[in-house]
Every structure is written in C-alpha cells, then in structure tokens.
Amino acid sequence: MLDTLATSSDKLPVTIITGFLGSGKTTLLNYILQNFDNYKVAVLVNEFGDINIDSQFLIGVEEDMIELTNGCICCTINDNLTEAVYRVLERRDRIDYLIVETTGVADPLPIALTFLGKDLRDLTQLDAILTLVDAETFISEALNSEAANRQLMYGDMILLNKIDLVAEADLNTIETHARAIKQGAKILRCEYGRVPLSLILDVNFSESGSSEQVLSAPQSGASNHLANDGFMSVSFQSDRPLAMKKFQQFLDYRLPDNVFRAKGVLWFAESPKRHLFQLSGKRFTIDDSEWTKTPKNQLVLIGRKLDPLFLQQTLNNCLTRQQV
Ligand SMILES: Nc1nc2c(ncn2[C@@H]2O[C@H](COP(=O)(O)OP(=O)(O)OP(=O)(O)O)[C@@H](O)[C@H]2O)c(=O)[nH]1
C-alpha cells in the first residue's frame, strides 16, 4: 500500500496500552493526549463490544477516523489492525506517534506481533507495551484471567493505577504478586494514569525487552478464546430516554454480579445533560457533559456468562413510556 520503505529514523514509534477491563487505559490515553506536547499523535482504539464508547469518551464523536480537537487523529479498529495502521501511515506527514489501546480482555501478544511482522516492521518501531493494573481488582483478575496474566507478562512497564483506592500494605502485596508473574517488572504507581510521560513514551523499551520477548513467545496461545478469556459483551441502545429512578433501581437490585464492566452514554428524561456512565467492578460513576448530537442511550455491559435477553429487557423496562 505504501510504496516507499522508511529508514529506521522515519519509523513511526508505537506504544501499546494494554490492561484489564476498567484498569484505566482510556483515562491514561486522555491524559497523554492532553499532555504529550510537541507530538502529533494518532490513536487506534480497539473495543470489546459493538458500540464505540471509548472514542466517545475521548472526544465526543463517533466516526471511524476522526480529527481530535488537539490535532490528533483517532480511529476505531474494526477487523484489521494492519489496515488501520496503513491508514495512519498514509497521513505520516502529519503524524509522529501512534498509540494503540487494546481491549481489556486482549492478549497483547498478537497486537505486538503485528508491528514486528513483515508488513509493518520497516515502517513502525514498537516503542513500549504499557500495562495498566487496577490496584483494587488486580489480585482476583490475575487469578481468574489468562489475558490479565499475559498483559502483565508482556508489559515493559506496569502502571499500578487507582492507588487512591487501596491501602499501602495492599499495594506492596500486589507488587509482589505482579513480580511473581513477571520477574523484574518495572512498576510505576499512579492515580488516573498520571505519570511523567517521559518515563513511558518515546523510551524505546522494546529494543531492550519486549520485542525480543514477543518474538520468542510461543504463538499457539494467541487464540480467539484466549483473546476474550470467557468474557462477552451485551450492547443496549435506545432513542428513548431512561427514567432515572428505574435505572437507579436497575443498578441497585437487578444488575447481575457477573457484569464486571459497563460503560455508556446515557440520556435521562429528567436531565438535559449527556451522562457518561462507568462501572468497573462494584463501583460506578456518572459524569455530566453536553450533548453535541441528538440524545440517545448507548450502553455496553461486559462480563462472563451474561444473559443478553434479560439485560436488554430489564434495561428496556427502565425507558420512559413516551418520547420527550
Ligand atoms: N478512583 C480511581 N478511578 C480511576 C482511576 N483511573 C481510572 N479510574 C476510573 O476507572 C473507570 C475505568 O477507567 P477507563 O480508563 O475507562 O478504563 P479502561 O481500561 O479504558 O476500560 P476498558 O477499555 O473498558 O477496559 C473510569 O470510571 C475512570 O474514571 C484512578 O486512579 N482512581
């Protein structure tokens, strides 16, 4: 597709941000986009679920490849990562850094291999794999999810995030646990992904670590099953508003325990605002913003062994009867 091969200094640096569901990848990405001065960044966001919620949390629009207000571009990866990277490379004159956010249930190995494979290795330079870890939920994730373990294993830098939610003694236990999975892991503690960017971007970690580790990894494990790790997603959309009280009751009494993560843009009959809903483990938040498009509800729920019909019907029952 691109007919000229780049010299090594022309190679587009690539950082992969991985980490389990809700660990803070999009939060870190937003922080980077606001603070990575002097770099023109392209972002590829891969999502687990049919609706592109993350790109809306980043910028408030939902087209496939879009220009962000700070001049960065954002693209949702559909089926083919290589194709998406080529599309970024076609704008190489305007882009000098690429960040890829994986889904929370992704094995980062096949993603890293894409950049080290023959199509892209002369055009891109894998700079580092950053692994976000949710300090509050990590121990149970690591025990239950092979993907969580592999995200840790292949990370060049572990960002132990959400330290505001955990006591110091528990952080030490988590670090010990993480080092048992990845010997010699570099671990940075943080809140809301706020770390000095010079420690994580344009650092060329891969040269000394992950590229070799990734290339020598056994490839047989990179199956779809592993990629999803038993997780599934259920989407809910509606152009009728929710009744706030009914939705609150849904959260309090009807939300099944096996929903581990949910995120969405919500429209309540009682409010003129656009509400950004986040649920991670047992915690949820609802933040306000302004509608820039016709209001509607878009919600993705992620968990194991979900009952899509039950969830969709229960959410349908939270809608108001008439259009407002
Ligand atoms: N208390 C606390 N909350 C955080 C921190 N970092 C992120 N969050 C919240 O955790 C929730 C999930 O954060 P995201 O950045 O969306 O997580 P993610 O890894 O992109 O999620 P997925 O892509 O769905 O796997 C959001 O409500 C964030 O505001 C932190 O350091 N402390």
Q: Which features characterize this protein?
A:
324 residues; alpha/beta; Rossmann fold; Hypothetical Protein Yjia, Chain: A,domain 2; 2 domains; five-stranded antiparallel β-sheet; 25% strand; globular; disordered N terminus; binds guanosine-5'-triphosphate
Give a description of the structure:
The relative contact order is 0.15. It is built from twelve helices and 13 strands. With 324 residues, the chain is of the alpha/beta class. The chain has two domains: 10-227, Rossmann fold (3-Layer(aba) Sandwich), CATH 3.40.50.300; 230-316, CobW-like, C-terminal domain (Hypothetical Protein Yjia, Chain: A,domain 2, 2-Layer Sandwich). Helix 5 crosses helix 6. The protein is globular, with a radius of gyration of 20 Å. The chain has an eight-stranded mixed beta sheet with strand order 3-4-2-5-1-6-7-8, with helices on both faces. Bound molecules: guanosine-5'-triphosphate (GTP). Guanosine-5'-triphosphate binds next to helix 1, strand 10 and strand 11.
In total, how many beta strands?
Answer: 13
- Structural class determined from secondary elements: alpha/beta
Radius of gyration: 20 Å
Strand content: 25-35%
Catalytic activity: GTP + H2O = GDP + phosphate + H(+)
Organism: Allocoleopsis franciscana PCC 7113
GO molecular function, one term: hydrolase activity
Keywords: Chaperone, Hydrolase, Nucleotide-binding
